[in-house]
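Before relying on records like the one below, remember that each one covers exactly one chain. Contacts with other chains, cofactors or solvent are not represented anywhere in the record.
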Amino acid sequence: MKFVDHLRARIAYGWNGHIDKSASPFISATPWLDPITQSQYAAVLNTPNPALTWEKTENLNFGIDFSLFGRRLEGLIEIYAKKSTNVLADFEVNPTYGFYYDEATLNKGNIKNDGVEIELASPILNGIWKWRTAFNYSHNKNVVENVTTNATNQSARTNLSQFNPVAGQPVDYLAVAEWAGYSDEGLPQVYYGDEILDITQIPINGGDLDLLQKFVGQRSPKHYGSWINDVSYRGFRLSARLLYSFGHKFLADSPPRNTLYNYQRFSNYFTWHPAIMVNRWQSPEDAETASMYSLSTRVANYSHTLMNDNIAEYNTNNVLDAGQVRLQSVSLTYQLPPNLIGFVRSASLQLQARNLGPIFLVNDQGVDPAFPKYSGSLYSAYFNVIRDRPEYSLSLRVNL
């Protein structure tokens, strides 16, 4: 075929192994001397874990590299399948076993990954005006299989999904309660099976998690990639890079943890008040518009206030679509004429802007998935604002 400049098909198959280097079949400890009694003792560093073995990953890849139409279109297509067995993951274990934070690294279950990667590049214009574009797309689907231990409490399942895999779900699943509005007292309500319960009626520690929570997606994108364009004319070059990602979810803003508990003990406990508190529930008329629960409703049981923290953050009303297209960077470069400065081989001046933010969001609230509002603490809120700011630079590059 005359329009084919280059075509290569390839296949690869192999195994990778991974072991937890921090684990050991033997106990290891650091010796100490008590400063008061001068007695010797030791602090356990690693609990013996003799059953730990290799995590194995089976890889199968099919690929095609091609160049068409006199190199007017180049690219590759790659399809892969990965199956990991004896996956290493941290699990909660009996405290008497002696593992740090009661979590042990164990070989538990399998993970399956399937995906495709596509890269396309083309010099659209190649005269005085030059325009080169490059597009890449990736898709990955992973699912956990055959896990023998799952999270037994709501906090572990919601906050630490990476440590509590669930069979049939992605590695980074998002599990939340199904929102049912506010009670007449302004407390969060959710569905527990077919019942609607407020946070004081849900069994302590969440009861049956399958009745309380539903899986609503994953935190990492299923579809993602970039589109890069370079346009040049004589000594000028303009470059722009777009990033896109779709098929994942994220959590919007939620009240700081322990707000209900501390506010009822010390009404002046908070020295700063996030905007989310301004429109909190204060009467039944606020049921549809309230940004958070009531602070005046008394909840005496501390466990129920912890339940309130989890429900206020991890509920379907607080889950947003993270699909987005971002303008990652734009740069304008001018290559100085070679005869401008005699002792310099080449010199260029570049103006660049980075982290310019999203130009398209799937969620209708306009919340940036990369930098969502965060009222958990003053420091975290400030840190997110700093990271969200664009960056600008002007540089001069000289080659002597």
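Residues 200 and 345 are 75 Å apart (CA to CA).
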